[in-house]
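Q: Convert this sequence to structure tokens.
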Amino acid sequence: MKRIMLVVSVLSTLLILPVVEAQRINVKIISRRNSESSYTITMPGSFNARTTSNGDGTATTNGTYTAPTSQSYKVQGATLILLLPDGRRAIVNCQYKHKMSWYGVASISPGTSVIERSCRQPYGSDIEANFKDDKAKLTWITSLDGKKKESETYRIIAIL
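A:
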């Protein structure tokens, strides 16, 4: 009887929990920066416009301009600003993968952090982003036939 109650309890919990899936969308890289030292990100300005037809052969366009702003995000490594389909911008960052050198390597003192590998970065500007929690897995095509792809996981800094 206890086993049946446990199974029912586990199954009901699994059925009640919402299924959270990653959101995969096509995005455009509008800015990129790569550095081993820390830096501050400057958001580029943007213009969003909406045009409506008046029905008499004329149209009205209204828009908003967002001026460039300096944000105080302290980052290191590869930072990309992605333009989302709805006009918002996502700042994503991938820090270099570091490894400590305890015994020293020629010209590197013991206990110094050395870069094991840098972050992979997309070659073009049109890529696919898979957003889940605070991560964005970026995927891009690396072959002429579109079959070969590369990817790297970046941390989401902000969505503006």
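Residues 2-16 form the longest helix (15 residues).
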